[in-house]
Amino acid sequence: MQQPLSPSGPTGASGASTRPKATRAQFLACDDRDMLRAARDLTRDLATARGEIYWLDLIASAGIGYGAMAGAILVSSVPLAVLLGLVSALALYRALMFIHELTHVHRDALPGFRLGWNALVGVPLLTPSFMYEGVHTLHHKRTQYGTVEDPEYLPLALMKPWSLPLFVLIALLAPVALLFRFAVLVPLGAILPPVRRMVWQRFSALSINPQFRRRPPEGEMRSRVFWQETCGAVWAWVLIGSMFALGWRPILIALAVVSFTATLNQLRTLVAHLWENEGEPMTVTAQFLDSVNVPPPGPIAEIWAPVGLRYHALHHLMPSMPYHSLPEAHRRLSDHLGLESTYQGANHPGLVVLVGRIARSTMGRGRG
């Protein structure tokens, strides 16, 4: 096994590293303890979630999203409707991504935020927080990341070429599938326990691993699931009933907006990791290097990876760090560890480069 790269070292005349980036394979057996120690020590003062930032960001994103959707429904100009629909999709995408924060921020840090998020975003988009809570944390477990027990991991870089477009495009069907789940399967499951068990195990988690089966909810989660599913089922039938009162146009536009949002999130998921693990347990450093940061410069990543998700690898080092603190944490670690550090191995230039990397890997598998 190669030795871990040092926190500092020689650079080229331009200041760029003269060594290749650290790779996951270098750290399958041991961690870079200097990096882990720096991540802990340099960011302690950044760990407090600021409620005013969360609430303002959420309300603004949801307000713009629903306002633009209403505009897309009401205007007669097709180009303007498309433009407003795009704005709506991007704003609601940002609002939706706060579900990721809900799973990590301590429940007492943001009083009322879970309820507010579910009322504004989770239930209206038929993606209440129970579909992520208790699921996403499994993805962060030291012994489960990248294994068959990880609900959010597939070795996509090691699969066949056709798997990538299928992985992204299947998200187009997400709004219809969610509508069917809440409008049909939830009421049916209330009557038929076998249906209820099947729906819970297989269709109640935002997972990408087809082998994942969710365990029954326990404790306070049971009550939370009941109320969120009940509200979701009622809202699903309100949406269906709206077709008779308002016609097809509003719900078709809403479904199109949410479909675009789901597809964009699936594309982000495609490049959130390098997907190069074949199922073995990994060190924290190896997990970090199998994950992706897309740091500045450039504002584009903030659009397709909002709410701190452009620092996804850093998030795997510090899962509880609030999203608004990640840019400063990244700056501190980059300055302290330097261009020759392991930390730089998780930094990547952008979406297109990452998609190309995974595509080349699958093409190699296709020829094999």
TrEMBL record:
What keywords sit in the KW lines?
Membrane, Transmembrane, Transmembrane helix
Which positions fall inside the Fatty acid desaturase domain?
Answer: 79-336
The UniProt annotation puts the region (Disordered) at 1-22
Taxonomically, which superkingdom? Bacteria
Pfam families in the record, alphabetically?
A: FA_desaturase (PF00487)
Entry's transmembrane regions: 112-132, 166-192, 225-245
Per UniProt, the ranges with Low complexity bias are 1-18
Q: What is this protein called?
A: Fatty acid desaturase
Organism the protein comes from: Qipengyuania spongiae
